[in-house]
Amino acid sequence: MSLCHKFQEDFSNYIDGDLPPQSHTDIEQHLDVCPECKETVQRIQLIRNRLHRLPRISTSSDFESRLRQRIGYGSSRGFQRSPLDYFLAWKVPAMGFAIALIMVSFFVMVDWDGQDVKLNETTKSSLTPTINAPSQTVESTPAMPESLDKFRANAAAKVADDSTDHEDGNEALKKNIKLVNEK
Amino acid sequence: MKKNTSKTGKITDETLIARFQEGDVQAFDVLVRRYKDQLLNYVYRFVGSRVDAEDIVQETFLRVFKNKHYYKEIAKFSTWVYTIAGNLAKTELRRRKRRKIFSVSNFVNEERDFDIPDSERNPEQEVDSSIKDSIIQNAIDKLPPKFKEVILLRDVQGFAYEEISQILNIPLGTVKSRVNRGRLKLQEDLKFLVENETNTRG
After folding, report:
1. For residue B28, which residues of chain A lie inside 8 Å, CB to CB?
2. CB within 8 Å: A44 and B57
3. What ipTM was reported for this prediction?
4. pTM (predicted TM-score)
5. pLDDT interval class at B89 (50, 70, 90)
6. A4 Cβ contact list (under 8 Å, min separation 6)
7. Are B136 and A70 within 8 A, CB to CB?
């Protein structure tokens, strides 16, 4: 980076008087020996002053009335609450309440027509088996050990029978062997 | 104790916005009158079109009105309102870029038009003050938005570096660096204008 570029980085701070004294002096000494940088600084100062003096414009005469319209106010007195705000603040909740009231009234009228009785009966008939089923299961549960014992007893008897059969079979086999030997 | 009035005895912006937040819409009226012209000048220099600038300033106040409770007293009201206006102006520039609408065509048709300097113009030609202003505006238009916004806030609107840092939400060092680069770019683009002015004076 050339010396000029290095000083250029601080030109704004120099012009605005934001540099520490030593840096300020360094730039001034450079500007004394570098006409190009001196011209640049002068041009920046001239343009800065020119920018600050640029002609000012004003908003059009209907600016505020158009703004009121955009916000939703028609009042010439100023930006007061718009009809929309009133509508949102009062009418919308009021309408909601009215709708809720109509719905409640509708259900009350349905009850008066006896629709609820039919509904209850249907509900009962559909619910009864569902409710009874578990109680049956619960009642059958204590019988389980009994039937198990019975099953075990039967099984033991069968095993005993089977063992008897095996014993009979063994004896018959012994007899057959004896007969074969004798022959 | 918090001050409700400035040294000049004027009710402060912060007091007005606080009153507006509590439902005093007349306080909003006062803020609009206080800021409408200075915001218009800022946005006008930003987008180069008076019509668009007025629309943007209207939109700025509309947002202030609708979002009044988003303002917190940790920042100055001016910082808040300039941030909104600047963001809307940048959005407008991006929108134009997308639609490839060249802003020059806008201000040619306006009441207060800028004359666009001819690139073939002889720099030695005598120029009057309004043409010089339009040339300067043209140079501002050519600046990249990040340099343009700091130049406008610093050299046109006269904000302090710290305030610009708050408005744009960028570090102080970045603000200073961008102002310096923006100024260097402008003096380069407006070299012939300044030389002409110096010669005329001489």
Report:
1. 78-79
2. no
3. 0.78
4. 0.64
5. very high
6. A30, A34, A36, A37
7. no
